[in-house]
Amino acid sequence: MKLVVLKFGGTSVADVPQIKKIALKIKAEVKKDNKVIAVVSAMSGVTNNLIDQVKKTSENFSYSEYDTVVSSGEQVTSALLAIALEELSIKARSWLGWQVPIFTDDIYGKAVIKNIETENISKSLENGFVAIVSGFQGVSNNNRITTLGRGGSDTSAVALAAAFSADRCDIFTDVDGVYTTDPRIVKDAKKLDYVTYEEMLELASQGAKVLQTRSVALAMKYSINLRVLSSFEDLPGTFIIKEGHSMEKFEISGIAHSLNEAKITISGVPDRPGQAAEVFGALADSSINVDMIVQSSPINHESTDITFTIQETDLLEAEEIIKSIQRNIGFRKFTSETNVVKISVIGNAMRTQSGMAKTMFETLAKNQINIHVISTSEIKISVLISSDYYELAMRSLHTAFGLDK
Ligand code: ADP
Ligand code: ASP
Ligand code: MG
Q1: Closest by Cα among 96, 144, 104 to 120
Q2: Hey, is 245 helix, strand or coil?
Q3: Phi then psi for 113, rounded to 5 degrees?
Q4: How far is the CA of 82 from the centre of ligand 2 (A)?
């Protein structure tokens, strides 16, 4: 008897007919004598709608109440799926995050899982029930509901697979696997049969939202047998595997884009030691991750400009923090912009071939696409560009790097 974790994303549980189809898929696993833990997202569009409602209610909401609101979509789908299974004469019960319980820290809105207690669900599985867990949810040590950040149901699924030592963790979604880039934007994107944890981690962290980044890191840490596959078609999907097993080794593994970006420029920062530390220290104290950074060198040795990017979802909070340190630092002003997208070309070729940056910048130049910020690492080059041109940038880079089918 195997234990499998099956995760169904928003489009896979978009309405009742769809939930009934998923119930049939789970029934097939049960008939194979497998124990099943299913993890569900909210119906597609529901989480966005709940976030809008919070923002319409107040600009200054508490993130703890925010989590209580936005986690509710998953409550509905988990219980509907349990009902759909009972309808097929399969024993099932829903589990909210706090009922499992899935303990997290208290960074509401992007909580981190501390530990998962397996006793309750194990007993239920022993008694022949399918466990349907609401994804995205946890509970803090203050006994309040937390959520794991956008796309967090992937992390719920992988964490449960690790806690229960599952034989495999299947992520069912609306595409049939991981591609060289977002197949909804670049029609020539190539489906990968295998991708290594490292490549997937890099793709996800640069915006390929098919898997939440944290879920990939967790899968790598616990060597989880992870697969991404279609909810709608019976196809093998993409296996996420260890380095060395890769059957398809691309020099460039893919191109990712992130729409959830905001650019902040702080102008007229006095040119003396400690200023960058003050700005980024204050942001870090509020768990705001800074990504790309450029500081211009001052011509007059008096003041500099610092430009950096953060997640757009952190912008309101970041603006408040920067306002609060303006007097202390004595900078002139700051501006922010959200009409920007980060495009990243990812792959091992970056390590060995110096022409990669040249190809990237020439391709963008040929298409008249202006670059705001550049950052590089050992295996990727990222550029921040205007959101008006991101689809053009992705298509032309996909071709320029020889990734088209
Ligand atoms: P779910 O609701 O099932 O969690 P998501 O919308 O979070 O689904 O993730 C699936 C989407 O990820 C796809 O519809 C696709 O547009 C997008 N995506 C971005 N990059 C990639 C990629 N490299 N491979 C596959 N899908 C990708
Ligand atoms: N429903 C949540 C979201 O839309 C979590 C998830 O789907 O993974 O972000
Ligand atoms: Mg998702």
Answers
A1: 96
A2: coil
A3: -70, 130
A4: 19
pLDDT tens sequence across 333-371: 999 999 999 999 998 777 777 788 899 999 999 999 999
Confidence of residue 247 (pLDDT cuts 50, 70, 90): very low
Residue type for 156, please? S
Residues 6+ apart with CB under 8 A from 75: 94, 96, 134
Distance 208 CA to ligand 1 centre (A): 7
- Nearest residue (CA) to ligand 1, atom 3: 9
Three-class DSSP category at 118: coil
Q: Which of 302, 289, 353, 364 is nearest to 330 (CA)?
A: 302
Length of the chain counted residue by residue: 405
Q: Compute the distance between CA of residue 244 and CA of residue 189 in angstroms, rounded to an integer.
A: 24
C-alpha–C-alpha distance, residues 48 and 18, integer Å = 20
Two structure tokens written together for 212? 């939440």
Task: Please name the residues in contact with 205: beta carbons below 8 A apart, sequence gap of 6 or more.
Answer: 213
Closest C-alpha among 367, 365, 370 to residue 384: 370
Residue list, ligand 2 pocket, CB within 6 Å: 9-10, 41-42, 47, 73, 135-136, 150-154
Q: What is the pLDDT of residue 249?
A: 56
Q: State the DSSP string of 142-202.
A: TS-EEE--TTTHHHHHHHHHHHTT-SEEEEEESSSS-BSS-TTT-TT--B-SEEEHHHHHH
